[in-house]
Amino acid sequence: MKKEDLRLAWLVARRELIDQMRDWRILVPMLILILFFPYLMNFAALRSVEFVNQYGGNLIAERIVPFFLMVVGFFPITVSLIVALEAFVGEKERGTIEPMLSSPLADWHMYLGKLIAGSLVPLAASYISMGLYLIGLIVQDMPFPPLDVLVQMLLLTAVQAVMMVSAAIVISTQSTSVRAANLLASFIVIPVSLLIQGESALIFWGTNEVLWLATAGVVVITGLIVRLGLAHFQREALIGREIDMLNLRWLAGYFWQSFSGTQQAPALLHWIASRQVRQEMSARLALTEDLRGLAAWYRGQVFPLLRRMRTSILITILMGLLASVGTYLYISTNFQSVKVSDEKMQEAMTEVRKILLDEDQKTLDVTSSHLFFNNMRAEVLMLAIGMATFGVGGILIYGLNFALIGGVLALVEMVGISALDILVVGVLPHGIFELPSVILVSAAVLYMGVRLVTPDAGESISQVFIQTLADWLKIAIGLAFPLLLIAALIEANITPILLYNFLQ
Asked: Does the pLDDT value for residue 273 go beyond 50?
């Protein structure tokens, strides 16, 4: 990036900042919030600390102070979000966007300038509020947060401010009116509020190391959102988009075309439409046609998609191996001193046998259908979280699954059982089907995130999203779910017997 590029982006940012600083409807609410909210949080912190100290909750009192500090930094950002939401669509409604769009500025100059201006004001408001809150702590002789926690809160506030503003600007570029942009703001505030709840749990648990990892994850998601806006911002589309219409017919047709590779109606609808004709056909001919269509779908859609996903699949496999091996080595290294007596070992074995198989009736405790639907729900949850985090959350869940395998094998070895034997007897019989299924759907989630942040001049965000969702369903329906079904049958009917005989 050249110095001249930064100067051009700053020109846009300065113009936006001047407009904001002379609008009393923006300044007055922000000043009231900056001055009043820190005082309110100081009062709440003092009363909370006094209350928990009555019952000996000194540790909780220490965590309340940084928690309120994070809340103080969060609220000014939410109020200032309205400025970012109308960054482009507001100017379009006021008729002031044409001169900027007709200038020789590049698209990314305008986008980056709006992002800088939209982030500086809420971030300054947040830091001022946090400073007033910290001054109030000193005045009230409250415990001051440790330096590392203070740095965490300041950094986390900055990252969350940029994340929320960048998401608001993406909404502003895709909306046709300020009203529509404001209605979509809930898709920013609600997820970030849930994120704040998760971070507050980490603060009260006192796990600062994990909070650093959470901060790193928010940094990655923020970078992806900024990349998403830059990838799909086009001034021509901003001018040409006049009205939002929910066209369900187009959505269904475009999704089916992306899923099947054809513009024809789904097979079920086609069967209903020609039911009378199909009834006259022989069952063998109908089955042959269905099999030919299914084979054509695999050849034309699923297998080419696997080739396009090969980099995502490779990355996913490597991450799974690193998670499992890393967890195994960590537990094996840090918990070597843990010893289990023979008596406790026998009791544990008895309980394991009861879990695996009912010794009296020889009936399975867990059915294959339960295992199948449970694993399928987990993969769908991976998709849902991955869609909201551009694949980052889905990959984290995937890594936790593989880390669990490594941790269990390490714990098994600590009690004197061969981890390799348990891997061969208790994991691989169904794992050779289940693990590829998890890898494929996780790679599809990662592929979805990569596609969304990759520039494509000929397609909008909604089109790319529909395509990637259809791609995930191709992998899930065509490969992952059938593999899960086979794995569930083996895990319910074969793996428990193998483990039971091995542990005799």
From this structure: no
